[in-house]
UniProtKB/TrEMBL annotation, chain A:
Protein's organism: Chelatococcus sambhunathii
Membrane topology: Multi-pass membrane protein
Protein's recorded name: ABC-type uncharacterized transport system, permease component
Lineage: Bacteria, Pseudomonadati, Pseudomonadota, Alphaproteobacteria, Hyphomicrobiales
Chain segments annotated as transmembrane: 12-36, 56-78, 90-107, 113-131, 143-163, 202-220, 250-272, 330-349
Keywords: Cell membrane, Membrane, Transmembrane, Transmembrane helix
Subcellular compartments: Cell membrane
Automatic annotation (TrEMBL), chain B:
Keywords linked to the UniProt accession: ATP-binding, Nucleotide-binding
PANTHER family, alphabetized: CARBOHYDRATE TRANSPORT ATP-BINDING PROTEIN MG119-RELATED (PTHR43790), GUANOSINE IMPORT ATP-BINDING PROTEIN NUPO (PTHR43790:SF4)
Keyword RNA-binding applies: no
InterPro entries given in the database record: AAA+_ATPase, ABC_carbohydrate_import_ATPase, ABC_transporter-like_ATP-bd, ABC_transporter-like_CS, P-loop_NTPase
ABC transporter domain: residues covered: 10-245, 262-508
Signal peptide residue numbers: none
Full protein name: ABC-type uncharacterized transport system, ATPase component
Family: Belongs to the ABC transporter superfamily.
Domain of life: Bacteria
Species whose genome carries this gene: Chelatococcus sambhunathii
Pfam families xrefs: ABC_tran
Amino acid sequence: MSTPIDLPRWADVILVPALSVAAAFAVAGLVVAGIGEDPFTATRLLIAGSLGSVEGVGFTLYYTTNFIFTGLAVALAYHAGLFNIGGEGQATVAGIGAALVCLYADFLPGVLLIPAGILGAAAFGALWGFVPGYLQARRGSHIVITTIMFNFLAATLIVYLVVNVIGERGVTETRAFARHAVIPYVHEALRALGIAAPTSPLNFTFLLALAAAAGVWALVYRSRLGYAIRTVGANPSAAVYAGISPARMIMVAMTLSGALAGGLAVNELMGVQHRLLLEFTSGYGFVGIAVALMGRAHPAGVIFAALLFGVLYQGGAELAFDMPAITRDMVVVIGGVIVLFAGALEGLFRRLAARLVALGTGFVAARRVRTAEEG
Amino acid sequence: MSAAVEPPAIELVDIDKRFGPVRANDRVNLSVARGTVHGIVGENGAGKSTLMSILYGFYEADGGEIRVDGTPARIRSPADAIRLGIGMVHQHFMLVDSLSVVENVMLGAEGGALLDRGLARARAELDRLAADHGLAVDVDARVGDLPVGLQQRVEILKALYRGADVLILDEPTAVLTPPEAKALFGLLRTLREAGKTVLLITHKLEEIMAVTDRVSVMRRGQMVATLDTAATSPPELAELMVGRKVLLRVDKRPLAAGEPRLAVENLSVVDERDCLRVAEVSFTVRAGEIVGIAGVAGNGQSELMEAIAGMRRPTLGTIALDGTVLTREAHTPHNLRRLGLLHVPEDRLRTGLVPAFPAYESAALGFTDDPAYGRGLLLERGRMIAHLADRMAAYDVRPPDPLLKTSKFSGGNQQKIVLAREIERAPKVLIVGQPTRGVDIGAIEFIHRRLIALRDAGVAVLLVSVELEEIMSLADRILVMCGGRITGERRPEATDERDLGLLMAGVEGRA
């Protein structure tokens, strides 16, 4: 039987993820070399494309916004001991909620319409999270199975609604939202202040994502409700002893998780597309699982992991453009390898990290002894 | 007799095993003759299971020697043990529910990549075993569909199929109904006739008397006696199990019991599998009194405590606090805490604490709605830490670090954290389960003194413990549970370990 490896906190939070990412890049580099391209040039292009220009940074942060929301959704459910892989479906249904508000309540002024649209997204996403939560809590249906099924249901529902009910004739999208339902772009705001900024899809939903991360942190680690959620996740029988109902906390956590996934719909629809269209979630919901795993379910970790995946997405797009041999699929491969190393093979790097830490402390101790002897 | 020249089937010489500071086996010697049923009895934690785990290769002894048929043997894994003809039937079965009997039996001994040859061989062998030992089982039945008694039979078949000559059975009747237990004993006798050697671990004395040839008694890691079963009696064994040493009497003021605080009336509780675990139990606990519930573990005490504490719904019966019967709605852990019924659960790591949380969070378990921990929706970390820091000082918890992860504290210190949390809330009724399990001597004394102080302050204390000594020295009245029923009530000054031991074993005591 293997015992869990105890590491100092800094090693747990920084060293282990860093080792995972380094190993993932090494493997990805081998793949790049395998198709006859230079991995170092590829890495340079990747970094330059995502962080080397203001425009690149804009795109990177736009992707990051999506990943923060979906990563937080997975992380929050994880604290209740649940594996919510229904981010795609929850975001899809949240998109329907946002669109209904933006299309049919546009008599409201912008200061009310935008918050109402955000709430609509959160409420619909919450509903799509609550139902699997209810089924898990009351009927014992496994959350992994139900959330997968709910992804399919959501995908079908949106097709029906957009094609038959709220969409424009002949296209698979709705009419555009009213101007005052749109969350402003960051570059527009900068230009209004007289600062020249290149166009990018980055909009103010990014700030909402950061606020959501702060909110999740306060909820999970500082609130009474978060305490109850974590107790259910860490030790259900202690929760029963404490008078916390595991069933209730499961439903609460899944509802909040679904609402967070709704942030993806806010960024994509109210921030960028300005209409409801099919498949706007583009797999961001699934990447959220990797983001949460890598960020160790901590909101700060989720932000950093989301940034890393933002860099990969944006840099990867540039890379595919500059090195035609490397397609976007290659970038997906790199992402997959990172997930593999950061999530599934984490134990591998914990052992290595423990050895490095032991070596480091031994080295420091030896030096201290030597200095003492000399002195 | 020829048995005198034949070397013993199993011989353990000076076996030593430590777990940290605990000496689980202290120079244990045991000799088991071939073709006998040999019982090993002792209280929980006496070292029986550790000794058998060493023999079966789960642990390696720190010192000593194992001899099989007179030859020294090194047993480093269960595979080594099986090779030497030693088989074990665990208390919790190691079976795959979805596979058939024959598939389970050959599991791990399939004999090649393709199954059909192994299957044919296993079938033939099972037929032979069935004929030889009366071990008939439908070999094609799905194991999950079989009753528990037959599942155990499959475990025995598994061991025999692997060529076991020596069979270790760990608490085999714990999960059996009385008729199933009787059938098992019949089977053990047949195995003995066939020349097999059986090691039976149990704490039920009537089983020892019913089926064994010889019996060894363990106490606190040591082997205290080995006797011929025919020449001993349950009272003698009970005495040996518990030990005669002078009780650590705690100074107590004379009983000044007041109003009844907790009244349990005809309480019955069933477990998840619909087994009746508590049967029509009634008792009261008055203010300023400690009522002790003695009994061998697994006789319904856990379910009784959980039912009173609102963690489990009783099937029948009522529970009254201060003369008011609790309605279904009022009977929740949350509400009971508000009414002053507090609970130190018997398993602190599984129930009483959250091992993954820092200590200050575990110390708030069940009390997070306390305004002292912060107003509104948020908990104030600083206040929680300061609160626990104070209690750590008062209870001498080491290390006194509220930020340390709960699982990093020793058992005694974890227990102090739980006790401090509950006692400090000024309980009217305190339910305490196994307060000193896995706790070092110093902490035991501290915990006992705290409980007495509570009693003297007028708290009604219900103490559940498998440690007779603890019950004898703390309780003002002793109830004994066996098979979910209360088999007797005694005053500590009017009883002794033998008397209690008989009640615990379900033997009718004196009136």
